Amino acid sequence: MTGSEGAFWRGRRVLVTGHAGFIGAHLARRLIALGAELTGFDNLNPYYDPALKRARLAWVAQAGTFRHVEADLGDAAEVARCFAEARPQIVFHLAAQAGVRYAAENPGAYVHSNLVGTLHLLEGCRRHPVEHLLLASTSSVYGASRRLPFREDHSTDHPLTLYAASKKGGRGDGPRLRAPVRDPDHGAALLHRLRPLGTARHGAVPLRRGDARRAAGAALQPRPPSPQLHLRR
To answer: 99 versus 49: which is more confidently predicted?
Structure first.
């Protein structure tokens, strides 16, 4: 870690949703190591084993202190309370109801988490303006598109699953995505595809001073760099 990297993140108030997930835990641990004042927001729902999530939280805590908020993004009051208390300057929104097949069993979970929950998060950003906002999306939004490899300017008008539709609906485009940040030209990024690789020992990729695009690219460690990773401001 260089002095400039540490200087940028040291004392920076950061909110990470979904910090008990695989990517979220690695990002949280790295941010703590860089000196950020981290707040994590996760409901530890049982879609993935809660015991595994708690083990990840214990691993994150090895890097230093952070605030863990166990609550549901679908609860507007809890999200509002989190923003009021944490006053984040940077937000990484990784939390979502995952899975394609599960949507057939419990479609309401996707509306609740990926649409309503994201709306509550964006409302928090509007009421407590942040400097940078990153929302994690999915390649599933490209749906029936036959154009490969996927690019950020490809159509997302024909999602094939409820999961994809909920992620498309919750991700925001254009002014809707840029509105809640202080710098609308550089403050918002949209991560279209996640392909986590490696283990905990691969978490040492430095976060560099810069906009949300560079921070997200470093923190989420694409290995190797690939056109499968697309960001939008």
So the answer is: 49
**Which are the catalytic amino acids?**
163
User: pLDDT digits over 6-48, tens only?
Assistant: 789 999 999 999 999 999 999 999 999 999 999 999 999 998 8
Instruction: Return left, alpha or beta for 207; rule: phi > 0 is left, psi -120 to 50 is alpha, else beta.
Output: beta
Mean pLDDT computed over 113-134: 91
- Cα distance between residue 146 and residue 149, in whole Å: 9
What is the residue-wise DSSP string for the chain? --HHHHHHHTT-EEEEETTTSHHHHHHHHHHHHTT-EEEEEE---TTS-HHHHHHHHHHHHTT---EEEE--TT-HHHHHHHHHHH--SEEEE------STHHHH-HHHHIIIIIIIHHHHHHHHHHS-BSEEEEE--GGGGTT---SS--TTS--S---SHHHHHHHHHH--HHHHHTTBSSTTTSEEEE------S-GGG--PPP-SS-HHHHHHHHT--SS--TT--EE-
The per-residue pLDDT for range 212-222, each reduced to its tens digit, is: 444 444 444 43
Nearest to 56 by CA among 28, 36, 79: 28
Per-residue confidence (pLDDT) for residue 82, from 0 to 100? 98
Residue 226 burial by Cβ neighbours in a 10 Å radius (0-12, 13-18, 19+): exposed
